[in-house]
Amino acid sequence: MTFTSPAATAAPTPTAPAPAPTPAAAPDLAAPPRLDADFYGFQDVLTPREQRAALAVREFMEREVRPLADDYWERAECPVHLFKPFAELGTVGAAWSETAGFETSAVFRGWVGMELARVDSSFCTFIGVSSGLAMSSIGLGGSPEQRAQWLPPMARGDLIGAFGLTEPLSGSDTAKGLRTTATRHGDTWVLNGAKRWIGNATFADVVVIWAKDTADDQVKGFLVRKGAPGFTATKIERKQSLRIVQNADIVLDGVEVAEADRLQGIDSFKDVAKVLRVTRDGVAWQSLGTMIGAYEAAVAYTKEREQFGNPIASYQLVQDKLATALANVTASLAVCVRVSQLQDAGTQRDAHAAMAKSFVTTRMRETVALCREVCGGNGITLDAGVARYFADAEAVYTFEGTRDMNNLIVGREITGHAAFV
């Protein structure tokens, strides 16, 4: 079928908070099965309940997403119909008191992202844009009333969110280079500008738009509902990475937003940075899942593929590449676990999250290349199981701050000097 964005109608008015979804029942196992790629047993950092909830996510991804991932990726379509069934597992919105089914750690929430990306990095992005970027914007920047109004229906999968920060002429320099404007007229704000690479924007019920207040030149956040006059979202075509994700170019032409839909806790870009710090961890975990998926596919392929009368897994050069890939996975898993533990402890700094994103995405890029290489010519086909991870890694490597920008954040921490310009 051809994916068609839902008709542009006004988003349903969010209702009063309802009980958060309860995590789906998982097998009553004292120790759920561990991934082979979890070589040092980091799963044990999770509580038994977290392990069971993570296993339920793994089983959902294997059952519902893996069978269709290659086909949807090839057609550049998004299985939007799976959002609500996934939300019923109870892990969407696990970070917020209004929507948490049970107390969770940042390590668990990262682990869930890893389980998603291990099967399909595009699906991880699709879920993460709504449950990570959009919900975190409301969770960190919304008033108590806004949190109660929006977070529960988003956690239930009744509403899907998007996050509009990047612009056609502003990426790494969004802190100072944001061109989208917001002008207040009484209790109404008027937004004008453009956004680019906005995932979910073609079908989202609400898009968090970041714009500069023309009165004080500070960045503010706005909840733009589906169907708002003057808002258009056009799908970006011909992508060769994360093809399932419906990225869009957005045009805001005199879009009116009520003061009640301005995020009340956002007063400057420093507040936006708080959201990015949390979600940058998520990109590190997503990168980890992407390389695990490629590694698992490569191991399976090399055990089946024969050359010179033996499985290629029996040859030294192949084993060397697989060992390097597993070492990259293991080191990256250690970084992801620790940076999330710092988040739980309230001691995580921007440089911590930046280093995690930079390091893990770099290791991911190397790992997916090694995994594609051991599959030979077949490695460029979807049938061998590695090509999709190899292609998707390029987008994950870039978004949420390039390697260079994240390293400069770390460099500022080391030297005390900002070298951004």
UniProtKB/TrEMBL annotation:
Residues 49-158 form the Acyl-CoA dehydrogenase/oxidase N-terminal domain. Pfam families: Acyl-CoA_dh_1, Acyl-CoA_dh_M, Acyl-CoA_dh_N. Residues 14-24 have a biased composition (Pro residues). The keyword Cell inner membrane does not apply. PROSITE patterns: ACYL_COA_DH_2 (PS00073). Residues 1-13 have a biased composition (Low complexity). Residues 1-28 are annotated as: Disordered. InterPro entries: ACX4-like (IPR045008), Acyl-CoA_DH_CS (IPR006089), Acyl-CoA_Oxase/DH_mid-dom (IPR006091), Acyl-CoA_Oxase/DH_mid-dom_sf (IPR046373), AcylCo_DH-like_C (IPR036250), AcylCo_DH/oxidase_C (IPR009075), AcylCoA_DH/ox_N (IPR013786), AcylCoA_DH/ox_N_sf (IPR037069). Residues 272-414 form the Acyl-CoA dehydrogenase/oxidase C-terminal domain. Keywords: FAD, Flavoprotein, Oxidoreductase. Its cofactor is FAD. Residues 162-255 form the Acyl-CoA oxidase/dehydrogenase middle domain. PANTHER family: ACYL-COA DEHYDROGENASE, ACYL-COENZYME A OXIDASE. Belongs to the acyl-CoA dehydrogenase family. This is Acyl-CoA dehydrogenase family protein. It comes from Isoptericola hypogeus.
